[in-house]
Task: inverse folding
């Protein structure tokens, strides 16, 4: 991306990014240079239209595949063709009813995928109920293939389209132009965070500060300051912003914020109010009016009860199935390890589980047998901040171990821990006792659930993450767990493992 500064005559509007990009991003998403917030509606509308095409096409492919696989060379009723033609509009309509096309759940985050999964479950249950009530003799094989493939293909298509969008955003296109208002320190922190994670799609183009900070504090910002808080609406319109983000600012009271919302409504500019609540999912937050005042009610995380039982049953059944299916792969890996370095095939290590209970975790051995003895001599070579010890080119790792680590094959024996109820398929990273001893009080929150074979930490960068980021992701999972979140993480894990990035 190439960025050009405005001239002095236009300095009030701040720097405007110009981008050069070609191919699928520009052609399919209709990306522009972002000089006006009207462009935002163009690419967002194009994105939703592409989603409709993807979902409709996914259903057509799924029903065609189900028809061919189930009735290949066998007699069938003609009404199956009509049924296959009706499924695509029903699927798209159901996605619309579950709000899977709403802008606030698209582009980033897992909520979009969760809604598609919920729509798939509802479609399956609805079809089963309708066939029972109508006493229709529908081939169960056809129905199962069609409905499962519909959900999977829709998820895959949306995932690919989102990756195209994120690639476009890394080049500076398809971005929301944001005017941040609040204290200078909060604006500076938010600007750094949003610009570091461009896939969220927010580009801060300027700020409005309290009157007392317009001189000294404004010099610490990397974005131009347009004026005081009262000028926010006019500044946003003049700068071509499509979003105003309100950060922590006691000077901006309720009446001021209400007037700001009215003024932004005039120019069709979005208003976002940043909450001090950290990593709390929207489904735990309910706004309840009390005497005209919006009160935010925060529900407790769902860490026990029937949903936790369902998660445990899901973990055990999937782990048992995978252990049976992967038995030949286990034997092959064991043979490779023995031929490479000899010695034991498995590596056993004490980790800390739910409630601080220690357990013995199983992995395929990827290091030489004297790795523990060489640890103290290598402690100063640690490349990871925090309490973790990581070296990108660790000399203790064997040749076969590098391949196993790259594709996370060394972690497959942890299915045994899942089967024993010591771990979960998805959860926080299983910590060492030495790590837990150094936890501050807040970090012990991650011990209220079982550790997982995979989690947000693995699908978000694996070993490339900083210590603070990995802890933050673990806490976010604990606070916002749901079965659909687990399913989304498992699907993202497959992609992360195939890429092999961040694994060493």
Result:
């Amino acid at each position: 991306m190439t960025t050009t500064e405005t001239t002095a005559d236009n300095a009030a509007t701040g720097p405007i990014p110009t981008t050069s990009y070609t191919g699928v991003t520009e052609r399919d998403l209709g990306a522009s240079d972002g000089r006006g917030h009207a462009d935002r509606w163009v690419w967002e509308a194009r994105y939703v239209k592409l989603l409709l095409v993807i979902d409709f096409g996914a259903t057509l492919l799924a029903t065609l595949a189900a028809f061919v696989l189930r009735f290949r060379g066998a007699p069938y009723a003609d009404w199956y063709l009509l049924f296959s033609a009706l499924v695509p509009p029903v699927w798209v309509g159901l996605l619309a009813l579950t709000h899977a096309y709403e802008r606030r759940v698209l582009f980033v985050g897992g909520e979009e995928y969760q809604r598609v999964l919920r729509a798939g479950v509802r479609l399956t249950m609805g079809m089963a109920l309708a066939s029972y009530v109508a006493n229709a003799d529908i081939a169960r094989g056809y129905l199962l293939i069609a409905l499962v493939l519909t959900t999977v293909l829709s998820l895959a298509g949306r995932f690919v389209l989102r990756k195209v969008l994120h690639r476009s955003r890394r080049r500076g296109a398809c971005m929301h132009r944001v005017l941040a208002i609040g204290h200078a320190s909060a604006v500076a922190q938010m600007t750094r965070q949003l610009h570091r994670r461009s896939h969220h799609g927010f580009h801060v183009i300027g700020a409005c500060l309290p009157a007392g900070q317009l001189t000294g504090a404004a010099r610490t910002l990397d974005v131009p300051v347009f004026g005081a808080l009262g000028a926010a609406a006019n500044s946003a319109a003049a700068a071509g912003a499509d979003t105003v983000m309100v950060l922590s600012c006691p000077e901006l009271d309720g009446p001021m914020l209400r007037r700001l919302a009215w003024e932004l409504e005039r120019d069709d500019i979005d208003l976002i109010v940043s909450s001090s609540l950290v990593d709390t999912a929207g489904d735990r937050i309910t706004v309840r009016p009390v005497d005209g005042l919006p009160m935010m009610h925060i529900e407790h995380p769902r860490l026990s009860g029937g949903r936790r039982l369902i998660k445990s049953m899901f973990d055990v059944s999937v782990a048992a199935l995978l252990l049976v299916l992967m038995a030949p792969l286990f034997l092959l890996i064991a043979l490779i390890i023995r031929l490479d370095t000899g010695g034991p095939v498995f590596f056993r290590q004490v980790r800390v589980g739910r409630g601080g209970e220690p357990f013995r975790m199983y992995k395929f051995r990827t290091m030489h047998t004297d790795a523990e003895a060489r640890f103290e001599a290598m402690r100063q070579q640690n490349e990871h901040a925090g309490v973790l010890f990581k070296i990108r080119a660790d000399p203790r790792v064997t040749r076969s171990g590098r391949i196993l680590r790259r594709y996370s094959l060394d972690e497959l024996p942890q299915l045994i821990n899942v089967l024993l109820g010591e771990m979960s398929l998805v959860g926080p990273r299983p910590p060492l006792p030495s790590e837990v001893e150094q936890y501050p009080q807040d970090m012990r929150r991650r011990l209220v659930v079982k550790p997982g074979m995979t989690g947000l930490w693995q699908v978000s960068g694996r070993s490339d993450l900083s210590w603070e980021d990995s802890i933050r992701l673990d806490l976010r999972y604990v606070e916002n767990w749901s079965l659909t979140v687990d399913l989304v993480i498992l699907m993202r894990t497959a992609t992360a493992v195939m890429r092999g990035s961040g694994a060493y």
Notes: The longest helix spans residues 37-71. The two ends are 30 Å apart (CA to CA). The chain is about 50% helix and 15% strand.
